[in-house]
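job 3f2a | input accepted
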Amino acid sequence: MGKKTNGEKNSNIAVYHITFPYYIFEQWFTLLEDENRKRKKILKAPLEFNYFLSILAQYFPNRQIEAILKILVEYNIIPYSLDYTTIWKRLQNKQNIDYYKLIDNKKNNKILKLIIMFDNKKNKFVNVQISVEDKNNVVSIFHGDIT
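job 3f2a | predicted structure (147 res):
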């Protein structure tokens, strides 16, 4: 899920808190192998990844989603970034997302947490913090300042 809060008062910076089940990122190639077996065209990302894109699309336009995916590649959360056209096509095929069913899935031992600071006036990211938390509250933190 996601949540938007404002940074400092009278600031143009919005802070977004987004959490998502980590198993999709952890089992990327296993999910992809199953899906590509049934398709003529080879996919670079599993279809479950569309849920993640849909959540990001609630807060950001496709160009910013593309930038977020590049950051996730940089921190080895995902192996490939999708281009603008692929993001657009996947978002056109939106399904009704039962996010809570996805969260309650027994495969979910870890949660990906993104804290994104976005400057609305300059239309660019200020900071993106990424962490992976498991059920025992053990956290792996990846973060970076974007300047």
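job 3f2a | The longest strand covers residues 124-134.
job 3f2a | closed
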